[in-house]
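Below is a typical protein record.
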Amino acid sequence: MEKDNVLFLEEFKEIEPYRGDNFLAALERLKNSKALVKGIRKAVFSKVPFIFNPILNLLIKIYLKHKLKNINTHCEFQHIVIKMVVGTVVKKTISEITFSGIEKLDPNKHYLFISNHRDITLDPALGSYAMTINNLPTFEIAFGNNLLINDLVADLIRINKGFIVKRNQKPREQIESTIILSKYIWYTLNTNDSAWLAQREGRAKNGDDLTNPALIKMLYLSQREGGLPFPDFINRLNIVPMVLSYEFDPCDRLKARELYRRDTNTSYKKRKDEDFLSMVQGITNFKGRVHIGYGDTLKGTWKDSKAVAETIDTFIHTNYRLWPSNYLAYDILHSTDKYASKYDEKYKDSFVKRFHRLPDNVKKYAYEGYAKPVENAEKYQNQ
């Protein structure tokens, strides 16, 4: 039995966050990473003349080593990252961040947070920030292997409680990887930590937050060999729906261009640096107000994965914080003044100017992304 347990844990080595010696080795690499120093300098001191780059690089390197010298655990590392990086992002690029439902979470329980997905790195980062400032334990975070752009990014993800979702493999390998992922999530929730998953693969670039039932089916694969009945399994997962609402999507123009290219070019293929550019813009661009809502833990008699997905969607669609940008985009898109009371002319002028460089046929996609949460919310108004 002990040997089987060792083999069971060995399955997770390629996807789990860094632990033990791997954690400490990654920490040393980060302390000495020229690319990390350069990235911090560009993010923090972008307006400083380049002549000062060498001295800034040296100061940042010394500061990094000082901050990381006594770090030994994920929690200690996350505390530094959230304070240094996420706290700075919130201060510089978010005018106000608010929360609802988070007071219902029990710090002694493990949860599976299933969230809408608008930004590659910011969604889970802000979720971790919310947990930290509300004195709650953070969670492990699912990242697709397509985001392991280079060794530095891979280290930053896996040292920061990130676990890897393998994608785009051959069919047999994909099935095996998916089963291992399912086992890992179940094991983590029952032993180590909470976990965060996006409601589907890829961001909702068109603003339509929909949970893929295949995600729920994937989770249940861990029970394929005589495990819990499906309804009991879902209740044991402690699923908490989570919704992030950005007043201004930091990548809205990038998303609009991509959606236009996808619709007009059947051979469209994402550029190599596209995800990295989205990650950078998501972190650095202005987001206005942000709200994060947490739902009740899912409990009930669940018929199938579709029923679970629909319950998550209902929470997200009815608890998405609708901003003036959403109402305005809806009115522009539908040529109406239905929600004119939600914004003024000054706000409208500023919002329209945001997209002035986009061709009209691309602007449509940007407005659709902002309008969709309003359209989704309207579906529940007469129920």
